[in-house]
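On clarity, I found the account of how folds are encoded harder to follow than it need be. An entry of this sort, consisting of the sequence and the corresponding backbone structure tokens, reads as follows:
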Amino acid sequence: MSCVLLVTRDPSTETLVERALSASGHEVITVRSSDAAIRSLFNVRIDAAVVDSAIGEQEVKEFCDWLRGGNDSYPIVLLAPAGARWLADLFPVDPGRDEIVTKPCDGKEIRSAVEKTLDAAGGARPAVISIGNLALDRNSHELRGDSATVQLTPTEFRLTCYLIQRRGSIVSAEELLEKVWEFFPGTGSSELVRSHVRNLRNKLRIVTGGADLVQTVPRRGYRLP
């Protein structure tokens, strides 16, 4: 069974997609925004995403860029009206991997597009995220390295996933508070971030034999090289 993430605010689209895919044995997880979709990827292993263009151009771009920019690269099915001129810029289709389904559409079209992308991607994805010699298990939240295996807390797991997705980029404490802890912009304490980063560093040192993988960039944030 494959797990498909659906991003839509439209109840009729939600019902249509869930019925079509559930009937074929797929699990469907529905969220209402790109932010909620990104957060869900910290805790759930998906195999494909169905994105309703009605959530808005900016949210479509944000989420699709995220899906294509990280350690994983998920196949995407975009539901969009005919003649949506912004599609070419915001959603350049990866031939043979992504699909655009023109709205209005029926369940059969959606199911066919999803299964086509899953076949092209080789089916269900592994539950382990790899980064160098480290392996992060999405299901058990275990972090394994050459020297040891440690158990991450739920927050440490989400923090690690986010740093991996943004690998090479500087991530501010404010961004982490919004994306990992789900605080509203401008709220939350940077000390909370520092405390969890410190704990995560200690566990990373255990599994790597002493390496300090999370870099602090003074007055700017953190980076996973």
In short: The first strand starts at residue 3 and ends at 7. Residues 190-208 form the longest helix (19 residues).
